């Protein structure tokens, strides 16, 4: 299949349009010029014929037509270059200022029309192109003859031919200039498009560091900006992914190393200290749970990306869920010297997936404890409205920098923190809240703490 380039289509389209415009304009101009010259000659002959007829009627009406014809020709020959004929009512030429047709009988429709009292015009060819204007000669209310003014159109036609040639030449020049201009204009569109296309092809090959130079602030320029932005985002995501792979590899290796080490220790026959055995088993269980949570995060991420996460919506008591989570975290908080403060409300029911929302609050509370210092406090509160519920978890910990805050809910993003974790928790939490048709808003004052707001509709059908 033959592919026509945009450049060819644009050039051809411009040319067809300009050719049509030139042809129509020149056609109208040529017709107008021809009509102008013809009308000028016609009006001149009509005027001369009217004057001659009026002259005869006023001064020569009582004179014999043959004698009067000599007076008419003598008086008007110097006013016109046209041939003057005087024809009687039988169509016989009785006088001719050129002396070439006297005595000849002429049969022409203009003579008949003039004898009937009308001024008539005849255009035809007699050895050459001519125009004839005829007007009746009236004596005492009776038509006695016809005056005919005959002019050659050869010079006019020759002049029109020259004008047509000049107009055609101008038209050709306009078309050629337009063709050149259309090629130049198409290049200003095609060249940037080629640049963008080539850059896109390079990106498809994995060269995401390439950048497109923006030449014009138009649609193609916007496309270049978009492609550059896409390239930057891909590079950022690639960097995050690589950092994540490195981080998760370390996070997975640590519990595995611990489990393997203690398992080998327990396997030794000389290791008989029961207290140490219990401690070792507890460490193995804890590390296994941590490993299990990281694997579950990875599985959740995979499900979200594949769109295979489904919610099991029920009427749930969100207050009771929060209370249960806080009870689970109390031992850890006490061990870390952190106070959990819950601003309890009365029972509040919403439409939601109990296990998924519990996963969200556990993740947020885990981060709050992880980044709070000993002696600090974590505040959990809820604000109930008619159609929505907002759960707030805030701390006075190290906070999040403005740069990290922009990307905190992106997949794989961990920021500059050296704390352990997969970097998936908030990204997964955000996805869960979005599936609930709610919003997860994180705000922070770096060095003074972080606040996370989870806004949920009480009835999902109202959203």
From TrEMBL:
Q: What EC number(s) are associated with this protein in UniProt?
A: 2.7.13.3
The membrane topology of this protein is: Multi-pass membrane protein
Q: Show the stretches that span the lipid bilayer.
A: 12-33, 163-184
Where the record annotates domain Histidine kinase, the positions are 247-460
- Which cellular component appears as one GO term in the record? plasma membrane
The record's catalysed reaction(s) read:
ATP + protein L-histidine = ADP + protein N-phospho-L-histidine
SUPFAM superfamilies from the UniProt entry: ATPase domain of HSP90 chaperone/DNA topoisomerase II/histidine kinase (SSF55874), HAMP domain-like (SSF158472), Homodimeric domain of signal transducing histidine kinase (SSF47384)
What's the top EC group for this one? Answer: transferase
Per the record, a Pfam family?
HATPase_c
| Coarse class of the protein's main subcellular location | membrane
- Read off the InterPro entries from this record: HAMP_dom, HATPase_C_sf, HATPase_dom, His_kinase_dom, HisK_dim/P_dom, HisK_dim/P_sf, HssS/ArlS-like, Sig_transdc_His_kin-like_C
Domain (HAMP) spans 187-239
Single annotated GO MF: phosphorelay sensor kinase activity
- What PROSITE patterns does the database record attribute to this sequence? HAMP, HIS_KIN
* Keywords of the record: ATP-binding, Cell membrane, Kinase, Membrane, Nucleotide-binding, Phosphoprotein, Transferase, Transmembrane, Transmembrane helix, Two-component regulatory system
Q: Does the keyword Kinase apply?
A: yes
* Coiled-coil annotated spans: none
Per the record, the domain of life is Bacteria
Question: In which compartments does the protein localize?
Answer: Cell membrane
Q: Which PANTHER family match?
A: SENSOR HISTIDINE KINASE CPXA
The entry's protein name is histidine kinase
